[in-house]
Amino acid sequence: MSRRGTPAAAGWFVGDGVGFRLLGTRCSSCTTVFFPREDAHCRNPYCTGGSLEEVPLSRKGHIWSYTDSRYRPPSPYVSNPELPWEPYALIAVELAAERLVVLGQAAPGVTVADLTVGMEVEVVPGVLHEDAETTWTTWHWRPTGVRA
Amino acid sequence: MTRDVAVLGAGMHPWGKWGRSFVEYGTAAAREALADAGLDWRDIGSIVGADTVRGGYPGYVAGATFAKALGWQGARVASVYAACASGAQAIAAARAQILAGLADVALVVGADAAPKGFFRPAGGERPDDPDWLRFRLLGATNPTYFGLYARRRMAVHGDTPEDFALVKVKNAAMGALNPYARYRKRVTAEEVAASAVVADPLRLLDICATSDGGAALVLSSMDFARRHGVARPVRIRAVSTVTPRFPNTVLDLPDIATDSAATAEVAGETFRASIARAAYEEAGVGPEDLSLAEVYDLSTALELQWYEDLGLCGEGEGAKLLREGATAPGGRTPVNASGGLASFGEAVPAQAIAQVCELTWQLRGAAGDRQIADARVGISANQGLFGHGSSVVAVR
């Protein structure tokens, strides 16, 4: 309740509710978009390099593929070994405008049985884990129109 | 000038969970390869190790570790890290030294003692490491990536879990005949289907285990081979070690996202296909020339992908090729006659070397019960984290 919300990856996303967005960077010279954000140099070998500017990514995309994790992942993934393992789905999502694929966890309650390749999903704010002081926030993919 | 190097010796330590140090496995494999070559360790001018970070000093050591274990004798030494492609790149380093005239005969060694269960990144808070990030943010293990590829094949090409299971059935039948393999039991499609789901749609028997193991090769110049009395050695004709090309549009280990394809032209072939093509071009052979192939079947579904990337069939036709029996013993291009990683498991620095050991034995006609008749040209293919890919062409 009094825990502070802190992004699990600094500068990768911003906003709340329908204003939530993944953040990438865009090269001012060749306009290539990078996610996770590339802040050092443009990685397009055909580009002589420009400044990299922060840019929000499309909020919606289509499922490229999906899977799940039926066994507890090892550290540095944080999970409570005292509690039974609950599998979660992972979704790789193709963003049309940026023409890139971004992997993320599915929103809680969404299982592989709910998903098909090509289905539309949207990015939503999520919680990765909580400790005594902090709620570590992340991004989740959720089929559009589904409410948590 | 010939660009061939001779394979004078091949050796392995049996794979499994033995609970010993990687140094023991590598040294045993090295001694076996030396004995196979009919050479003394003191005859070796260069030793190249494929690195491990586990079981030993956490500083990417290999070449000197094996040299010390075998007895310091002043050889040139190098160590190579390229994740799963480490072994092939160690072969590439030794081959380059031989072709450059820096060494007449070289020993290549890879060995590891793997952890139980999932591979994981090194410890500490390291948010600048993509491998650390994918575990920390997503809990995305290697099998989850294999699951993504498998599901994608099902959606795009119509592959089924039953197709995937047939890969395991084929490879387990060959592994049962290989004394170095960890798993030496035939497996049925029903057993695959009854095993636990690890990363949907893949099950435990679709995914290769982590293992201990070691493999080694003795390589030499063609002149040295002749002087040593080996008139017709198995020859390494190509070692491809290419990187991907931007934009890399297939989500790959350990990345959380692909490159954007919005602004740069996308290459007409995938990274995996480019690994094989580079090897074919360097060797002057094509898929139609192959007698056999050893590919990284980290998952059953991934083996089908390699069929297409090696040009054994068209895109999306991997499962059909498998069902026709073309990649089984007796088929047009048997794949993973060794039993593959399905039968060996992963001992990361050793496995690309182990592939070439198998090619060597097959091309010599010395593969025993799993011999592919009249084998003349073989290819290995593998891929490692962070954009490493390698492929070796060996000929008789």
Automatic annotation (TrEMBL), chain B:
Signal sequence region: none
Record Pfam families: Thiolase_C_1, Thiolase_N
Domain Thiolase C-terminal: 273-392
Domain of life: Bacteria
Segments forming domain Thiolase N-terminal: 5-111
An example Gene Ontology molecular-function term: acyltransferase activity, transferring groups other than amino-acyl groups
Transmembrane residue ranges: none
InterPro entries: Thiolase, Thiolase-like, Thiolase_C_2, Thiolase_N
CDD domains tied to this protein: SCP-x_thiolase
Protein name in the entry: Lipid-transfer protein
Origin species: Streptomyces roseochromogenus subsp. oscitans DS 12.976
Lineage: Bacteria, Bacillati, Actinomycetota, Actinomycetes, Kitasatosporales
